[in-house]
Amino acid sequence: MKLSPRVRAEALPPEEIPSIPASVIEPFLTRPLVIEPDGLDKAPTIVATQANSVLLSAGNTAYVRGIAGSVEENWYVYRLGKPLVDPDTNQTLAYEAFYLGTARVTRAGDPATVVLTSAVQEVGPGDKLVAANVVRTINYAPHPPATFLQGRVMSIYGGLDKVGEAGPLSVITINRGRADGLEVGHVLALYALGGTVRDTSKPRGARDAYIKLPDERSGLSFVFRVFERVSYALVMNITRPVTPLDVVQTP
Asked: Kindly report the CA angle at 157 between 221 and 34, in degrees rounded to 5?
């Protein structure tokens, strides 16, 4: 199912949440960019290319197994990406999927023949197909969670693990999802993780020689896509860059 955004602001004062730019989050709504650990195991797979080319671009032909029996004509092409690891439990919650382009079935069968109708990266054998469906409009009503909820920033979309920084209108991945009570439209406060420092007034080796500084609020984020155990949120008004391991919680 393909989604397109329509933003509707209520429940929070307008100065708290600026208008949500639909163009920023639309690609994240229309494509399944988070995949469960086994989510692509049974997905149709490119098994060969025309003329045995190693990599394909728009206009090239490929052969796909696993499509037989499907009535879908248009497909997204993906490659399984990096794992999304919960920083608190070190458990893999899901995988990011890299969007490569679109394909159209030109001949049914097993294997089926497809033509790449667009490509943002080169496509090759082993890449997976996910059905592209019709658009459904969603309304967003920004509001805080009804109960206290706390989690962590796992990654900055498009950034490097534990290195990237997020500014305004960047997309972050957080380690809370539908199973934790998170829903589309939730507004979460962002906190920079407080570091640990040595209290120089205490002797070295003293039990209380090191103290953890408090987490400092740095801004707000808007949850716009929720999966079972992870979610995407848009960084809104902030006073400092957001980094992986930062805290998100009910304002």
From this structure: 95
